[in-house]
Design brief:
The chain is of the alpha+beta class. It has 8 helices and 15 strands. The strands form 2 sheets. Strands 1, 2, 3, 4, 5, 6, 7 and 8 form an 8-stranded antiparallel beta sheet that branches. It is globular. It starts with 9 loop residues before the first helix and ends in a 9-residue tail after the last helix. The model has no long low-confidence stretch (mean pLDDT about 95).
Length: about 325
């Protein structure tokens, strides 16, 4: 962890401890960003200046990316179905450390936090077997926070306040990809999927390497991509690789849905931009807690076994151990 932990306000702590779902962004090898929805379960350590989340070893892709580049960002963008009351949009950026071997006590603490946000879990001999990998074959991603930026409303409109490292200058425009910047997907079809998902966020790599996540409105689309609208000053000028997330969720995270894209962002002025999607992945869980638990258990069980057979688990553990040996920079407060 950093030698001088970053300290944040009571309002920010309430939000980071109480949001049911947040957007987490990480950087891609090509200099873009991917942004996904996670449930952090209020896992914060204010005295250490740390936040985090857990994920199953059965879903290793984002772990690979974070281990390759530990600069990440959390966007606390909606109070929906959570416990926090303030309406601020909170962006926390920092350096991730992956704990591939969390202790039994830590996993028990995660289960307790899960019950607070998701309600009592399924139990019994069959359920305990089915959910064993989902509950116990988990890793913890701890983030030493470098910077927290807050806006006074969920749209990130108005003046912002920075705690920690100064906000950097806008990043330079990126070189277009070799395959071109035009959409590589059926935009009409993708728009139908995204249209029913109320929370939309965009992520790009900032000048200091940390992802920046901002809320966006999709005002329309055509064959060239989506038309986006943001408050002034949130997007840097020019073109660049960027990630787009649209998601929804119900109380206790039942019936969640998510579509995440990578693509090319082109900013036309201070508030308007276009986004050409290149890839898209999605998931949709049924609005039934029993069916969702069944699916989580089966997917995690299959994923953990596959990762063990093909060597992914051993490789991730070696990379994580090497990462933990490297001292993180002292960012100060």
């Amino acid at each position: 962890m950093t030698s001088t932990p970053l300290h944040w306000s009571d309002t920010t702590h309430e939000i980071m401890s109480g949001d049911l779902n947040v957007a987490v962004a990480y950087v891609t090898p090509a200099g873009g960003a991917v942004v996904v929805s996670v449930s952090p379960l209020g896992l914060t350590d204010r005295s250490a200046g740390r936040i985090g989340f857990t994920t199953s070893l059965g879903f290793p892709r984002k772990l690979e990316r974070i281990l390759d580049n530990p600069q990440v960002a959390f966007a606390y963008h909606t109070r929906e179905h959570g416990f926090a009351r303030p309406e601020d949009f909170v962006l926390a950026q920092g350096d991730a450390v992956v704990d591939m071997h969390p202790s039994a006590q830590r996993l028990d603490d995660v289960l307790s936090a899960t019950e607070r946000f998701f309600g009592p879990g399924k139990s019994g001999r069959i359920w305990d077997w089915l959910l064993r990998e989902y509950r116990r074959a988990r890793v913890c991603v701890d983030v030493d926070v470098r910077r927290i930026t807050t806006w006074p409303d969920p749209a990130a409109d108005g003046p912002h306040q920075v705690t920690g490292a100064a906000w950097p200058d806008p990043p330079a425009e990126q070189r277009p990809p070799q395959k071109g910047t035009a959409p590589r997907l059926d935009v009409d079809k993708l728009a139908r999927k995204v249209g029913s998902l109320p929370h939309r966020l965009l992520a790009y790599r900032g000048a200091d390497g940390y992802p920046v996540v901002v809320p966006v409105k999709i005002t329309g689309h055509d064959r060239t991509g989506f038309r986006l609208l943001t408050p002034p000053g949130l997007l840097p000028p020019g073109g660049r690789r960027a990630g787009l997330l649209a998601h929804s969720f119900r109380p206790q995270n039942v019936g969640l849905a998510m579509t995440t894209c990578t693509g090319w962002l082109k900013v036309h002025d201070g508030t308007e931009a276009s986004y050409a999607p290149h890839t898209a992945t999605g998931l949709a869980a049924p609005p039934n807690r029993t069916v969702q638990a069944l699916g989580n258990g089966l997917l995690a069980k299959h994923g953990v076994r596959k990762a063990g057979r093909n060597g992914t688990t051993d490789r991730l553990r070696k990379v994580a151990e090497a990462q933990r040996q490297k001292p993180l920079p002292d960012h100060g407060a």
